[in-house]
Amino acid sequence: MARVFQVTAGSSRSGRRRAGQPTPAPVEPALARRAGIVAGYLAPHPPHLVYAENPPQNEPRSTGGWEVLRWGYEELRRRLRAHRPDVLVVHAPHWITMVGHHVNCVPNPRGLSVEPIFPHLFRYHYDFRTDVDLAEAIVEEGERAGLVTSAMREDGVRVDYATIGALHLANPDWDLPVVSLSANNNPYFYSDASLAEMETLGEATRTAIEKTGRRAVLLASNSLSHLHWDTEPDLPEDMGVERPFTHAQYAGDMELLQTIREGPTARLKEAVPAHIEATSSETKAGSLTWLMAAMGWPAIAGDVLAYGTVIATGNAVVEWVP
Ligand code: 2X7
Ligand code: FE2
Predict the structure, then answer these.
(1) Ligand positioned closest to the Cα atom of 224
(2) Do the beta carbons of residue 281 and residue 313 sit within 8 Å?
(3) DSSP 131-171
(4) FRET partner for 137 with CA separation of 20 to 30 A, picked from 5, 52, 71, 268?
(5) Is the CB of 218 under 6 A from ligand 1?
(6) At 61, is the secondary structure helix, strand, or coil?
């Protein structure tokens, strides 16, 4: 067993579906090209999921694993295609900025993304296009809303694995342009997660999408409960040892997902901070709150496509069609 993580277990300090209705209806032809946010997804990024898929871009090879989550992503991809977006906009917790919110404005990011703790699972060669007009519009709208916002234009900067992971799993063909947003790290320095700024960033994102006339799908690249093992089995994809960290962590995730499944999303304004407190949820980085605010906290339920653990962390693939 190799030692991979050092964490203290314990409490946290640190379509178109109305409530109760089933699977979203197919996109109506008359509405098919309307601009705006056409769907939002909770799209978690554990590097294990990409590793398990064995795409040609990732160097390590696996024998599979975490199938239920990967089947959820398969369904996400089918639905995402049906929404016919112009662009994918992703907010990810491992592009950490200490001051303000950064937006990747590099036209063609390319390079090698390596997961620092799991380099034996994720060494991914990426090469994608940025929707620079939309990226710059988000910077502008963020500034207009009073946020410290910055356009990142360093051509050679390495893109983090949470951005690449969510984008790969949502669109492994990489045939859509992307806008990638950083996560301001401040919530990790305060005991109570301060997510208010993420609401402003979400609103600024929506305004920019509307002003540029884009049809956008948004990806919130967050895991849920976030306590995890500090050892790894010899076979990383050994599903015989994959399970929730504790029953309490699992129950916390189920409570949040039940709220999501029932809707409306406004209930998440209270449920997300409570879930963070109970499970050290990665949503503390703000991606889920950003997504909800961007969609205007629609009065709908989310459709949970899959749930599963990855090294004990909780992960759900969820769709909202506002
Ligand atoms: O970043 C992650 C994560 N969010 C969950 C599980 C495993 C590794 O990395
Ligand atoms: Fe993560």
Answers:
(1) 1
(2) no
(3) -HHHHHHHHHHHHHTT--EEEE--TTPPPPHHHHHHHHHH-
(4) 268
(5) no
(6) coil
Q: What DSSP designation does 130 have?
A: B
Is the CB of 313 inside a 6 Å radius of any atom of ligand 1?
yes
CATH of domain 34-320: 3.40.830.10
**Model confidence pLDDT, tens digit, residues 265-277:** 999 999 999 999 9
| pLDDT tens digits for range 194-203 | 688 999 999 9
Apex 320 CA angle, 279 and 292, nearest 5:
60
The whole-angstrom separation of Cα 42 and Cα 306 is 10
- Cα gap 309→235, rounded to integer Å: 16
Cα–Cα distance, 265 to 135 (Å, whole number): 26
Burial 82-102 (b: 16+ CB within 10 A, else e): ebebbbbbbbbbbbebeebbb
Residues, the chain, total? 322
Domain ranges of the chain: 34-320
CB count within 10 Å of CB 40 equals: 27
Residue nearest to atom 6 of ligand 1 (CA): 46
CA of residue 217 to ligand 1 center, whole Å: 23
